[in-house]
Write a structure and sequence with these properties.
The chain has 313 residues and is mainly α. It contains 12 helices and 2 strands.
Length: 313
């Protein structure tokens, strides 16, 4: 009898996971997951529609909010195909090339969102520190240029990911640990030298952490400026303009930091916890950001309610 050496056979299909141990309940789990996707897409579309149709919202702060909404929609739409197939149709297979493409878009939109949150913190600092010069510094043309630069920077940052992953060989392992493809997850399956992927993946994570540290620095400067305001009422009013952005930063970075710690340092962790954290990373920020900005930003809330009342009439 001849024995086939499967370790030399290159794998071209990967297998994603749903909820480990809860496969029998996938169809029921799909109801809240699909609801979250639907809410995220409709919520961000509403934000974009309101900002586009209301001339009074054609200001830098709301332009940046539009960029945030678009990156949230990109994140949702990037993971929706595989998550939907797993929970609705029990189809966890994904081709290698489709997996590499998906992780490019997921990491790309994540990088865009991180950059947008950074520039929004700068926008809040400028509005509080130099309110008289705010409009002259952040003109619509400059805002458009900032958006283009942020998009190019994010694309160039993650562009090597699919190419470095494609250059690796995958021989014996094909089981991924999430419901969608991530760079750090795929590279662990390689049976060839993946040091370049490890180093560049660490560099990509470091860039996100630099964004986070610069955001923290912006808020230190904002707090310093606010404390220099004589009136307590004006101090609270200034800080209130930052509340929505602070919530968005926490919602976005907290799951990323937790997932990064689990991937890099924790050796033995429940597969279910891994999947839950990864799904929180892509489901919660796109769903929560429209809620936060509608609740905490009066201008957005008033316009959304006005649009809803018009439709009911």
């Amino acid at each position: 009898m001849s024995i086939i050496n499967t370790s030399n056979v290159e794998i071209t299909t990967f297998f994603l996971v749903g909820m480990p141990g809860l496969e029998y309940a996938h169809i029921w789990i799909s109801i809240p997951i699909c609801s979250m996707y639907l809410f995220a897409i409709l919520g961000n579309c509403t934000i974009l529609f309101v900002i586009k149709t209301e001339p009074s919202l054609h200001e830098p702060m709301y332009y940046f909010l539009s960029m945030l909404a678009m990156s949230d929609m990109g994140l949702s739409l990037s993971s929706l195909p595989t998550v939907g197939r797993i929970f609705l149709f029990n189809a966890p297979e994904i081709s290698a090339n489709a997996c590499f493409a998906q992780e490019f878009f997921i990491h790309g939109f994540t990088a865009v969102e991180s950059s947008v949150l950074l520039i929004m913190s700068f926008d809040r600092f400028l509005a509080i520190h130099s309110p008289l010069r705010y409009s002259s510094i952040l003109t619509p043309v400059r805002v458009a240029k900032i958006g283009i630069v942020l998009s190019l920077k994010s694309v160039l940052l993650v562009l090597p990911f699919p190419f470095t992953l494609r250059s690796l060989k995958y021989c014996s392992k094909s089981q991924l640990s999430h419901s969608y493809c991530l760079h750090q997850d795929v590279m662990k399956l390689a049976c060839s030298d993946n040091r370049i992927d490890v180093i560049y993946g660490f560099f990509g994570a470091l860039c996100l952490m630099v964004d986070f540290m610069l955001i923290a620095l912006s808020y230190i400067l904002i707090l310093k400026t606010v404390l220099g305001i004589a009136s307590l009422n004006e101090q609270l009013k200034a800080l209130n303009t930052c509340a929505s952005h602070i919530c968005a930063v926490i919602i976005f970075y907290l799951p990323i930091i937790n997932l990064a710690i689990v991937h890099r340092f924790v050796r033995h962790v429940s597969p279910l916890f891994n999947v839950l954290m990864a799904n929180v990373l892509l489901l919660v920020p796109p769903m929560m950001n429209p809620i936060v900005y509608c609740v905490k930003t009066r201008q957005i809330r008033v316009r959304v309610l006005a649009k809803l009342c018009q439709k009911q009439m």
